[in-house]
Design brief:
This protein is α+β, with helices and mostly antiparallel strands and about 210 residues long. About 30% of the residues lie in helices and about 20% in strands. The strands form three sheets. It has a four-stranded antiparallel sheet. The radius of gyration is 24 Å and the shape is flat.
């Protein structure tokens, strides 16, 4: 029989494990654990769901978030309200499809912005084509780290961007490619072949023959 790791005393989200609760009754029986939620309720959760973050409360977390989001201010359904709602969801709800890129890696919403009125006061309404942008992509949602930006500006703040420095200038690969008159794949291929960065981003593209 597979050894079950004792997790009594561990805390997962709002749940503290207080005792073993046997196994689930389905065909893929899994260890269950009796937990005490921060709200005071007891809850029986499956161990794997507790550990991977899919279960973080007795259900009160979702209710609390829904209560926050369903408060009306005459702006429910507006772009800025939907932005605020989505921001809270991806940082607080493990079931949100984007949680792993936000709350799952420690990004939070500051206490002040848990109120929509405060968020609106600090950010103001966005212009057409703008969305919320964190200045530091690894930082939290808070007044000092957020602004409204258009898609082009936000694309330069993605953690997947590759920044290259040559001759004292630092730009993302896409901008070097634009300056060189080629696709960024060309620069990436040059680097993969062992070219140094300066040659990869400055050497002219051949007009005839094989493109390098």
């Amino acid at each position: 029989m597979k050894t079950i790791t004792d997790i009594v005393g561990n805390k997962y989200g709002r749940l503290t494990v207080i005792a073993s609760a046997g196994y689930s009754s389905n065909s893929n029986a899994k260890p269950q654990w009796l937990c005490k939620c921060d709200c005071g309720n007891e809850y029986v959760g499956i161990g794997v769901a507790l550990k991977n973050g899919n279960t973080a409360s007795c259900g009160c977390l979702r209710r609390d978030v829904s209560r926050e989001l369903n408060t009306t201010h005459g702006m429910k359904g507006t772009k800025i309200y939907n932005t605020w709602q989505a921001m809270l969801n991806r940082c607080k709800l493990p079931s949100n499809k984007s949680y792993h890129r936000y709350g799952g890696r420690g990004i939070t919403v500051c206490d002040r912005w848990k109120s929509f009125e405060n968020f609106l006061e600090d950010m103001g309404e966005p212009n057409k084509g703008e969305s919320i942008d964190r200045i530091n992509n690894d930082g939290n949602y808070e007044p000092s780290n957020c602004k409204w930006s258009d898609d082009k500006t936000q694309s330069r703040n993605k953690s997947t961007n590759v920044w290259l420095e040559a001759n004292g200038t630092t730009m993302i690969m896409a901008d070097w490619a634009k300056r060189l008159g080629c696709h960024s794949i060309t620069i990436k291929a040059r680097l993969a072949r062992g070219w140094n960065v300066i040659d990869a981003v400055t050497k002219p593209i051949k007009s005839k023959g094989v493109t390098v």
